[in-house]
Amino acid sequence: MENHFVLYGANGYTGELIARLSSAYGLRPLLAGRNELSIGALAKELNLDYAIADLENPTTLDQLLDGHPLVLHAAGPFSKTAKQMVEACMRNKTHYIDINGDISCFELVKTFNDIAKSTGCMLMPGVGFDVVPTDSIAKKISEIFPNTIDLKLAFASIGSTISHGTAITMTEKLGEGGAKRVNGKIVSAPLGEHSMWIDFGKKNLFVMSIPWGDVSTAHHTTGIPNIETFFGVKPAVYKWMKAQRFFNWILKMEVVRNIIKKRIDQRPAGPNEKMRAEGISLVWGKGTNAEGESKTIRLKGPEGYTFTAHASLIIACEILKGNWKPGYQTPAGCYGSDLVLKVPGVSFY
Q1: CA-to-CA distance for 245 and 255, rounded, in angstroms?
Q2: Helix (H, G, I), strand (E, B) or coil at 91
Q3: Which of 52, 73, 93, 296 has a C-alpha 20 to 30 A away from that of 42?
Q4: Between vectors from CA 311 to CA 309 and to CA 314, what angle results, nearest 5°?
């Protein structure tokens, strides 16, 4: 099996986790990004090759991708970086995967479906947490409860926190509201429009509706027409988020977002090693048919960033072995509902 691929954004929090875990899967990624100092140091430590390329410079991107079958894109915010990398992949007939969770980015990448098919490439955004486990649950529900017309998906993390990259992505969306899928179409909805307590099996947790990537991906995987996604939060946080609508115009101001980003930069880069080792992720899915009958599936797995590192490398291995489909794909849509079980520590219950 070819074991070489490009890992772009290797110096980011999640990118570095992927780079460090790659040898466990027999892979030797070419570490890439814009910061030569940090990427070079990581490459030296891991005894890997590296290259510097600017997403805004198509020539350097083409030089980077030349001769490489796959890019694992880990440099966010993806709303500002995905298009450039996908276009470069199409020019160079290179498979594209990323660890994005943004609805708009999934819909953007999907527009390249025909080009990808014509060039013989696969496009699969969302190869990490939460899309891999939620997509697997969505697929499994559609298999065992095929008349589902309404799907609710929820995820929560216990004992962990978010990285700078995730926090920055969330900041970019402040004041923008939420989204859900209704009768097959993605529609706007207030952030936190719905909330509820969910029995995750291991613990009862409070969740609120958010515009997560599954609003796009789960429909592509299953065809279920109505989809809403939820995230575990503290009730007090939910009240603050609900109040956000009264000052959305302020949160959209670039100066306000920049102040928040500066505060993010002062925090730790992401969960520390102890959090990653001890934290867990919980995922819940409920499908309901026209008669009001329902089916619920739950999943437990490792901490979210650890989950992402394993899942992205598992999918990279499949592609490099030649197991892929041309065009736009989703994780469970391409690899089946049991794909998630390949991630160490994952189980349905």
Answers
A1: 18
A2: helix
A3: 93
A4: 105
**End-to-end CA separation in angstroms for the chain:** 34
| Beta-strand runs (E) in the chain | 6-8, 30-33, 50-52, 70-73, 95-98, 122-124, 150-158, 178-182, 185-189, 195-199, 204-210, 226-232, 280-288, 294-302, 327-328, 347-348
Does 258 or 11 have the greater pLDDT score? 11
Instruction: State residue 217's pLDDT score.
Output: 98
Per-residue pLDDT tens over the stretch 310-348: 999 999 999 999 999 999 999 999 999 999 999 999 999
Q: What is the pLDDT of residues 113-126, one digit of tens each?
A: 999 999 999 999 99
User: Angle, to 10 degrees, between the axis of helix 13-21 and the axis of helix 36-46?
Assistant: 20
pLDDT reported for residue 161: 66
Report in angstroms the alpha-carbon separations of 114 from 84, 131, 319, 328.
17, 23, 19, 8
C-alpha 197/C-alpha 24 separation (Å) is: 38
Alpha carbon distance 244, 310 (integer Å): 35
Yes or no: say if 269 and 249 are a contact pair by the CB < 8 Å rule. Answer: no
Q: How far apart are CA 160 and CA 275, in angstroms?
A: 5
Domains of the chain: 6-128+306-348 (3.40.50.720), 131-304 (3.30.360.10)
Max CA pair span of the chain: 60
User: Residue 1 above 60 pLDDT?
Assistant: no
Nearest one of 32, 88, 94 to 69, comparing CA atoms: 94
For residue 29, the model assigns a pLDDT of 98
What's the Cα-to-Cα distance from 325 to each of 27, 131, 265, rounded to whole Å?
Answer: 21, 18, 39
Q: Tell me what pLDDT residue 304 has.
A: 92
SS3 184: coil
